[in-house]
Description:
The chain is an alpha/beta fold. It is 56% helix and 10% strand. The chain has helices at residues 3-14, 19-26, 46-66, 111-122, 141-155, 166-178, 182-189, 207-222, 243-250, 262-275, 282-291, 296-313, 319-325, 327-331, 339-350, 354-358, 364-380, 385-391, 397-413, 415-428; strands spanning 30-34, 38-43, 73-78, 131-135, 161-165, 194-198, 226-231, 253-257. Helix 3 (46-66) links the parallel strand 2 and strand 3 (73-78).
Amino acid sequence: MTVWDRVLDLVEKEGRVSSHSFVTWFRPTAFRSFDGSALSISVPSAPFRDWFMKNYSSLVSEMLTNLGHTGVRLLCDVETFGGVESLPIIEASALNPKYTFETFVVGASNQMAHAAAKAVAEVPSKSYNPLFIYGGVGLGKTHLLQAIGHYLLKRNPKLALTYVSSEHFVNEVVSAIRYERILPFRQRYRAIDVLIIDDIQFLSNKERSQEEFFHLFNTLYEAGKQVVISADVPPKMLTGVHERMQSRFSSGMSADVGPPDIETRVVILQKLAAAEDISLPDNVGLFVASKVRSNIRELEGAFNRIVAHASLRGVDIDIDVAQAAMKDLMDAPERRLSIETVQKFVADHYKVKISDLKARNNSRSVTIPRQVAMYLSKHLTTSSLPEIGRGFGGKHHSTVIHSIRKVEMDRKTDSDFDRLLNSLIASLK
Length: 429
């Protein structure tokens, strides 16, 4: 046991401060060193240090005297510890240099999201707050979020901007709770000017993390700070997320990014080639764009594959090289979708279990994914209605019909839901 541990024990046992004050001001500290004349401890922030020294340094000196250490100086250093990293001001160099507005290809499927992101970057906290961008995997959400960061930091390098994934946020919450550092955790996040958080759906069913983010969001919003969020679905379709959070996310601007059309895919390929000073014939761009339809990430993968193929052969890129590089894709038989494939895809998307889709669970968090899965099974597989019913735990075919009609009706009345279904269908095909 260190001398600081003994001081803490004495302060707590003698009841010289309230239990709340002890947890707030003594628990977040950590022992560094003791040489008989000076005791060095770590504290989470400069404001914390100033308050602690002003209000508790004399008490610590008294406790040290009681332990037989007189005339000891107390030193407080601000540093990270206990597994909770500090939250630095992000610099432009910390963001992906490729993800700027200049390199983002605008098309019909992402025009609104791009315009909203640009407006937020021009006038943060004034245009759309929060800005909520949603869409499928590999369609450019992260690109737009980081483009906002690049633009803001270019104009004001000292801006307290934080770009973080929701997975990292959850890990920080867990670590802060584990090491009893929740107060400095909150202080660090609430001191920023712009919060950009990616893939908010990762907060699904994580109660404590949602609670922390809810209060953080309110604090930043009420202080006029900009919040930008991305997810794979619109706010009201986030499963496992409290309605009050969905309501907050919906209070600003929501914009979707969908699968790019063939013209946009061709332009993306041309920009990729130009960025690497590579000559890409028009017929090759059109060929690749016609073969890769799902998302931008796979399009980039196909481009890199062709470039590597041409480099290894020591030739320029032409249609023969492109066809050879993509031979596996061209020779692969057309994928026949099964009910099981659709179920796995939908379950992964909505973060539910496949067994839930088959069970007699009528909660909203399961009913909507089940209806969507039945609808997609009808339209993307060759299975009959009775076969689909059997595939979903022995449901009657009338239940399947009801689900299909419900989805069809919602697609007509809810544009966000319709765009989501289009994105899911494009990803499955």
